[in-house]
């Protein structure tokens, strides 16, 4: 069965920044935050202080993954330009989103460069308080922020542009599933993707249901199910708590608005990439044809639009030309 890992991170240079401060690599896949928190960032054998495209391709080949979507996040630090270089080098294997701090003085200059010059057609907002922008900015709303609004107004000139959002869990200021519904209504020609199935908790499915029901009327909202094993604290294959979460999502949104990803490399330090890439096949949540959608067709439709692939392939960076 063909698969696209729709949530993968490359790490050329560890540059993490969140509420814990800066992240410093220590070798052997380990890193330390400024507040003293020690983490295992990269699985053994994948890289000591980095996770490069060639390592990713090796992991993908070993696990039968045809393509991957490269996303950015505050954990690793934005790897925008390396992701661009990777897509240019391996255009049949990767597509990428970029990230920007909307409160930076040159935010719009950064956005325009990535869209107009480099050909990106997806943007990732990691706004979570636990790991993203809310950890080092005052609380803000995606649907009323003037800074975010400027970015969305600009990319609305590119139909099918993908806006991917990680807003953390319900305990955080950043948790705002209703903002996604509001934005989907205002920007019907954009595609919105919510990461990590809105941070589910199998003991509180009513909360997840509330979020999903808000998105149900809007066909331009999808959700991916990466890292829900980490979120649920599960290491027992095939992850029974995650099965409850995904079954509910299918019931409300249907199989064509859910797709698979891993959030590796970090998530593969908790569960093996093999288990993360096969667990759905060990359940009866989806039929075979639905699995083909969840594993491949949905991400292909949303991220790998032909005009988006063309934009990145034909782009020429004027700075480096």
Can you offer a commentary on this structure?
The protein is of the alpha/beta class. It has a single domain (4-313), classed as TIM Barrel (Alpha-Beta Barrel). Helices cover 35% and strands 15% of the residues. It is built from eleven helices and twelve strands. The strands form three sheets. Strands 8-9-10-11-12 form a five-stranded parallel beta sheet, sandwiched between helices. α3 runs parallel beside α4. The longest helix is centred in the last third of the chain and has 16 residues, at 288-303. It is globular, with a radius of gyration of 18 Å. The termini are far apart.
What percentage of the residues does DSSP assign to strands (E)?
Answer: 5-15%
The counted number of beta strands is 12
What does the radius of gyration come to? 18 Å
Kindly give the count of domains. Answer: 1
What do we call the CATH topology? TIM Barrel
Descriptive keywords:
321 residues; 11 helices; five-stranded parallel beta sheet; 35% helix; alpha/beta; globular; four-stranded antiparallel beta sheet; TIM Barrel
Short description:
The protein has 321 residues and is of the alpha/beta class.
What's the SSE blueprint?
Layout: E1 4-8, E2 17-18, E3 21-27, E4 30-33, E5 38-40, H1 53-62, E6 67-70, H2 80-89, E7 94-96, H3 107-117, E8 122-126, H4 146-155, E9 162-166, H5 177-186, E10 191-194, H6 205-215, E11 221-224, H7 228-232, H8 240-253, E12 258-259, H9 273-278, H10 288-303, H11 306-314
Parallel strand pairs: 1-6, 6-7, 8-9, 9-10, 10-11, 11-12
Antiparallel strand pairs: 2-3, 3-4, 4-5
């Amino acid at each position: 069965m063909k698969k696209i890992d729709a949530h993968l991170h490359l790490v050329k240079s560890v540059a993490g920044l969140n509420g814990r401060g800066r992240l410093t690599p220590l070798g052997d896949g380990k890193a330390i935050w400024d507040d003293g928190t020690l983490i295992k960032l990269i699985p053994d054998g994948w890289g000591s202080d980095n996770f490069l495209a060639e390592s990713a391709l090796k992991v993908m080949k070993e696990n039968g993954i045809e393509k991957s979507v490269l996303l950015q996040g505050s954990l690793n630090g934005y790897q925008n330009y390396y992701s661009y270089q990777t897509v240019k080098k391996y255009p049949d294997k990767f597509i990428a989103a970029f990230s920007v701090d909307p409160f930076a003085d040159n935010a719009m200059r950064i956005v325009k460069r990535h869209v107009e010059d480099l050909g990106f057609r997806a943007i990732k907002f990691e706004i979570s308080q636990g790991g993203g922008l809310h950890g080092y900015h005052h609380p803000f709303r995606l649907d009323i922020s003037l800074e975010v609004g400027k970015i969305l107004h600009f990319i609305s000139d590119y139909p099918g542009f993908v806006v991917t959002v990680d807003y953390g869990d319900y305990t955080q200021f950043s948790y705002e599933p209703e903002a996604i519904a509001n934005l989907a209504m205002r920007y019907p020609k954009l595609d919105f993707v919510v990461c990590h199935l809105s941070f589910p908790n199998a003991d509180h499915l009513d909360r997840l249901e509330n979020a999903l029901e808000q998105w149900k009327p809007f066909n331009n909202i999808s959700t991916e199910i990466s890292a829900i094993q980490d979120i649920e604290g599960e290491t027992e294959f095939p992850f029974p708590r995650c099965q409850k979460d995904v079954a509910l999502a299918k019931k409300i949104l249907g199989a064509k608005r859910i797709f698979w990803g891993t959030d590796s490399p970090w998530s593969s330090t908790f569960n093996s990439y093999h288990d993360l890439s096969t667990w759905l096949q060990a359940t009866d949540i989806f039929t075979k044809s639905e699995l083909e959608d969840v594993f491949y067709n949905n991400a292909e439709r949303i991220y790998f639009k032909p005009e988006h692939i063309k934009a990145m392939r034909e782009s020429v960076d004027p700075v480096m030309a």
